[in-house]
Structure formats: structure tokens, C-alpha cells
Amino acid sequence: WYRGTADAIYQNLHFLKTSHEPYVVIASGDCVYKMDYNKVLEYHIEKKADITVVCKDMPAGTNVDRYGTIKMNENCQIEDFEEKAIVAKSNTISCGIYVIRRRLLIEMIEKSAEEERYDFVRDILIRFKGQKRVFGYKLKDYWRNIASIQDYFETNMDFLNPEIRKYFFREY
């Protein structure tokens, strides 16, 4: 069993070590969105970032207590990252999508495993945000997290909106 998200990567580290790609995109599988990962990668390289976190500004009044919330400076460098805060200081949330250099990821995952730390967000992102160049890439388009039956229902209902359908699906 995986003890956490970092441990899941650690238990599959052989794949990363035998890969020759310079960058890794980590993406959670419980979200609905459409994104060109090449644009995020270009942004990551342009910023000379160690880690790039895809994030989204949620509308005022949205309950963000189940997400990681982010505060960035004017250059989009992440200054504060709280995971599932009781009282959020920001309405900018992490979408659970990250870009990181493959070698840096391997190094950080191995260090976390040595210290028996198993959570990618808490034990890598939050822990190293002051030591590494961590930037936010703002997603402006549709994004939904599917964490409950209610989320699943609401997301399906969103697809009744012709604009959302058109955004996701080509018309012939």
C-alpha cells in the first residue's frame, strides 16, 4: 500500500530513474479540466522554477477548505502554501498539477523516504517552498475537483451548459 503521495512516487522511482525526460508532470486523476501541458512547461522553464504548481483563483464565497491554498508575490512565486487550512488566507487553490525537473524530484523523493515523510504536498512542496523556486501557473479555464458524489453530479450538470460542452468537445 502507498502511505501517501510521495510514497507512491517513491515506490515507482525505478520508472523515473530509467526515464530520459528532463521534466515530470504530476497530475491528480480526480479533476476535470483541459490544459496544454506544453504551456505550463514553457512557463516553468521561463521562470527557471524548481517546481511549478498549477493553481486557480476560485470565486469569492467558494469554500476552499478542502484544497491547498496559495499566496504568490507579483512575480507568481509562491510565498505561502497551506494544505486544507481551517481558515484560508487566499482563494487561490492548488489544482494538484505540478511540473518539476526529473532529477530534482528523484532527489527530493529519496530524501523524504529516508526521513519517513510520505506526503508530496506537506513533505515536499510546503517543506521546501522557502528553499526552492516554487511558482504558480494560473489556470483561467474550467476546472473541477471530483471528490464526492455531489461534485460528480455538479460537474455533470455543468456539461449541460453549451459553452462548457463547446470548450471541451469539438463540433463537427
Number of beta strands: 8
The helicity comes to: 25-40%
Q: Quaternary arrangement of the chains shown?
A: single chain
Mean pLDDT: 90
Global outline: globular
Question: Helix and strand string, N-terminal first?
Answer: HHEEHEEEEHHEEHH
User: What are the segments in which pLDDT stays under 50 over at least 5 consecutive residues?
Assistant: none
Assess the beta-strand content as a share of residues.
Answer: 25-35%
Radius of gyration: 17 Å
Q: Biggest sheet: strands, sense, closure?
A: 4 strands, mixed
Report strand order across the widest sheet. Answer: 1-6-3-7
| Count of individual helical segments | 7
Structural class: alpha+beta
- How far is the N terminus from the C terminus? 45 Å
Key traits:
172 residues; alpha+beta; 7 helices; globular; two-stranded antiparallel ribbon; four-stranded mixed β-sheet; single chain
Précis, in short:
The chain is an alpha+beta fold.
Structural overview:
This protein has 172 residues and is α+β, with helices and mostly antiparallel strands. It has seven helices and eight strands; from the N terminus they run H-H-E-E-H-E-E-E-E-H-H-E-E-H-H. The strands form three sheets. It has a four-stranded mixed beta sheet with strand order 1-6-3-7. The protein has a two-stranded antiparallel ribbon with strand order 2-8. A two-stranded antiparallel ribbon has the order 4-5. Strand 4 and strand 5 form a beta hairpin. The longest helix has 13 residues. The chain is globular and about 50 Å long. The chain starts with a helix and ends with a helix. The mean pLDDT is 90.
